[in-house]
Amino acid sequence: MFTGIVEELGEVTAVETLDDACRFRLRGPVVTQGAKHGDSIAVNGVCLTVVDHEGDEFTADVMAETLNRSSLGALQAGSRVNLERPMAVGERLGGHIVQGHVDGTGEILERKPSDNWEIVKISLPADLTRYVVEKGSITVDGISLTVVDAGPDYFTVSLIPTTLDLTTLGHKQPGDPVNLEVDVIAKYVERMLGDRVQGAAK
């Protein structure tokens, strides 16, 4: 489990294309500290497993299902990525509960800078709109953010200078894809209420 508080802005150093998968080599001096085979690291919000670790770099295999459901397939050598290690038991939950299981992808639609923050508008797939509410939580490229406005096919977030400086959202432009993970609590509530409504109708 993750919190959506990005630890560092890493870099893809190599991409190896396999028959039905990809192998990424990524640089991240912070997240590789103490890393070992089998550990989990979130890359742009996608939970990946460390296959190999050497120095400040690690490799991770990404299967076709993940490539199809996320924006990782667009990564290439030199791409910047958000990196986060799993939350340790007993630590503060600085963001919100993030699983690292991407629900879909959106697209940067618009950026509106101001003196102290920036409003970013992002497209929202139709099957995810019911989970996104004003002032609710959403994960964008692994970043825990608060929804400012929830539209019928989009949402907006307000980014502080720290987020702009230390994550991929400081560099992405209109047209760029982003990974989205909605609040898992909303999905559980929907499932429980759905079962209850169906039971009452019988």
Automatic annotation (TrEMBL):
Lumazine-binding domain sequence ranges: 1-96, 97-193
Keyword Transferase listed: yes
Classification via PROSITE patterns: LUMAZINE_BIND
Molecular function terms, GO-annotated: riboflavin synthase activity
Highest rank taxon of the organism: Bacteria
Alphabetized InterPro entries for the sequence: ATP_synth_asu-like_sf, Lumazine-bd, Lumazine-bd_dom, Riboflavin_synthase-like_b-brl
Record field: transmembrane: none
Keyword field contains Protease: no
EC id: 2.5.1.9
Entry-linked CDD domains: Riboflavin_synthase_like
Enzyme type, top EC level: transferase
Pathway the protein acts in: Cofactor biosynthesis; riboflavin biosynthesis; riboflavin from 2-hydroxy-3-oxobutyl phosphate and 5-amino-6-(D-ribitylamino)uracil: step 2/2
Protein's name in the database: Riboflavin synthase
